[in-house]
Structure formats: structure tokens, C-alpha cells
Model the fold of this input.
Amino acid sequence: MNTVVAIVILAVFIEELAESVKGRIEPRKLPQWAWLGITGVIGAVLCVLFKVDLFEAIGFAGDAAAQIIGRVLTGFMIGAGSGVVHRLLDRLAAAKAADKKAAGHDDNAGD
Done:
């Protein structure tokens, strides 16, 4: 599965799960930072289980420890909310477009 698709699916799933749980324990309101921590941990666990790593997807390869760290960080980013995911995807798309433009520019320089 494409990493970006997996990230979006997990972000939506975690967001819906958090909203469902919030609705059931509303009388015991938790502070926003606690929800971010809870959803971050859920995201990290899911990304490790499903081997979803944004850093690997954009070309940062490493040993097994680096892969686990990448998956955990990806999960925390996903768990932080859909706004973070959308900003990351926008930046990723911009970086990819810049790489393609630079590659095209370098190809023309050799002619």
C-alpha cells in the first residue's frame, strides 16, 4: 500500500476513534495535551504494527532502529491530528515537485 494512503487512512481512523471515546467520557474531560498524547501513542503503535514510515517513503533509509524510530515518529505525527498530516503532505508534495523540477533542470544542463 502506498505510504501516503496508509497515513491518511490511519489519521482518519485515529481521529474518529478519539472523537468516539471523547463522546463517551465527556463528563471527565481530559485536557487537549492528554488527547494529543493518547492519539500519538495509538498512532505510533499502529504505524509500528503496519510498518508505515513517512521518513522511509521520502528517502531516509536506515537500519532497523532507524526504521522503528521513523515509524514511531510517523505515528506521533498522525496521532497529532489531521491538520498536521495535511501540512506534512503539502510539504512532501512541494519537495517532490521541487526535486522533479531540479532533476529536469539538471537534465537540460547536460544537453
Q: What stands out?
A: The mean pLDDT is 79. The first helix runs from residue 3 to 24. The chain is about 80% helix and 0% strand. The two ends are 38 Å apart (CA to CA).
